[in-house]
TrEMBL record:
SUPFAM superfamilies: Ribosome binding protein Y (YfiA homologue) (SSF69754). It comes from Fuscovulum blasticum DSM 2131. It holds the Pfam family Ribosom_S30AE_C. Residues 130-183 form the Sigma 54 modulation/S30EA ribosomal protein C-terminal domain. This is Ribosome hibernation promoting factor. It is found in: Cytoplasm. Associates exclusively with 100S ribosomes, which are dimers of 70S ribosomes. Interacts with 100S ribosomes. The gene is raiA.
């Protein structure tokens, strides 16, 4: 597995890197059998340290966790505990994820755009209805089942996930609703 441990305007020493690899290695070995990459980023927010961790599994799933504390090791431990809890909660589903899948998750390419925010007042008419594109990036869309998409949404703590439905190949969306439930948009089923 590949570890990428870095700090945003913070110097990360060898001792902390060794500690992170050992602790996360235990958590990952316990719950996820085939991780491919682990990215850990330390930063500061006012007087607190922030540790953000992303673990990518060979199944295409991504787990994310974040921890904060006044000490850098305590911030990592808070993050590790959240990751442990998250992976423990989904352990059976993560392991069973391999049973039905014949090969690794396939990803299709797509363009992602960032549009400029409108600075106009509510009463003023916009000059044009064409938005201003301020960034264009490449993104990947996984080809997974609806159940896997919901699990990915919950594991990563995202609000929305666009995916290609393995059942019929169409593009679908799952999202977290304000009432706490999960919404699923499948344009193929519209009449």
């Amino acid at each position: 597995m590949r570890y990428q441990i870095s700090g945003k305007q913070i110097d990360i020493g060898e001792a902390l890197q060794t500690h992170v690899k050992a602790e996360l290695g235990e958590v990952i070995e316990k719950y996820a059998q085939r991780p491919t990459e682990c990215v850990v980023v330390f930063s500061r927010s006012a007087h607190e340290y922030v540790c953000e961790t992303v673990i990518r599994l060979s199944t295409g799933l991504t787990a994310q966790a974040k921890g904060t504390a006044t000490e850098i090791y305590a911030a990592f431990e808070a993050c590790r505990e959240r990751m442990d809890k998250q992976l423990r909660r989904y352990k059976r589903r993560i392991r069973n994820h391999h049973v039905d899948r014949k090969g690794p998750v396939e990803f299709g390419g797509a363009s992602q755009y960032i549009l400029a925010a409108s600075e106009e007042t509510e009463d003023a008419e916009p000059d044009t209805l064409a938005p201003v594109v301020i960034a264009e990036m490449e993104t990947k869309i996984p080809s997974i089942t609806v159940g896997e998409a919901v699990m990915q949404l919950e594991l990563a703590g995202q609000k929305l996930l666009v995916f290609r439905n393995e059942g019929h190949g169409g593009v679908n969306v799952v999202y977290r609703r304000e009432d706490g439930n999960i919404g699923w948009i499948d344009p193929r089923n519209s009449r």
